[in-house]
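In the design runs reported in the main text, the only information available to the sequence generator was the tokenized backbone. The following block is the verbatim input for one such run; it is reproduced so that readers can re-run the procedure and compare outputs position by position.
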């Protein structure tokens, strides 16, 4: 940055005037503010990317769980013919999850899907022949592996959201977040009805 001073900016003693010093100070503050904004923007962007990458891992596992449900429902339906309402609710919850357009709606609908899946597994416990079915046991094993991966990826996602939301909500980085329209992201928390993920019994 070049500062051009004319004779009016310099006192008779050869020193810059008060106005010149004020201008220089203002210019320095503007430069420092610009550097801070760039630093804050980059920091917020990196944190947001971590959240998005973590969410993509969660989405993969939730999609695998949703893809497993039709086979699971058909298998249960072959034995539990009087549980049609529960089976329908499972598939309705799955449809709502698959049609979710935002992370918030996906989290809510996946929680509902998990709730009904838990009920479906509870129903299965009442049918010994179903529990002995080879296809059902295979689906249970696959579901167990998926649920473990959901729990792990969910923890990584929530950790990333916590760090990102701190930057968005706490001073001084919240000033840059507001300026560049960074918004807080939702945590992936199970609703009150489902404090724990669906439990699969293999015995």
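Verbatim output:
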């Amino acid at each position: 940055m070049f500062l051009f001073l004319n004779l009016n900016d310099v006192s008779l003693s050869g020193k810059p005037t008060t106005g010149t010093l004020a201008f220089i100070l203002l210019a320095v503050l503007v430069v420092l503010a610009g550097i801070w904004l760039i630093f804050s923007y980059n920091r917020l962007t990196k944190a947001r990317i971590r959240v998005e990458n973590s969410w993509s891992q969660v989405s993969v596992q939730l999609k695998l769980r949703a893809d497993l449900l039709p086979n699971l429902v058909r298998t249960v339906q072959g034995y539990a013919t009087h549980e049609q309402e529960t089976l329908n609710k499972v598939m309705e919850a799955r449809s709502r999850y698959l049609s979710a357009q935002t992370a918030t709606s996906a989290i809510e609908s996946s929680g509902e899907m998990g709730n009904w899946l838990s009920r479906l597994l509870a129903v299965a416990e009442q049918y010994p022949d179903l529990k002995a079915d080879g296809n059902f046991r295979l689906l249970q094993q696959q579901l167990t592996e998926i649920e473990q991966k959901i729990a792990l990826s969910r923890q990584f996602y929530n950790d990333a959201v916590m760090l990102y939301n701190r930057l968005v909500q706490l001073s001084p980085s919240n000033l840059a977040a507001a300026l560049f329209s960074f918004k807080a992201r939702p945590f992936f928390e199970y609703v009150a009805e489902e404090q724990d993920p669906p439990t699969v019994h293999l015995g």
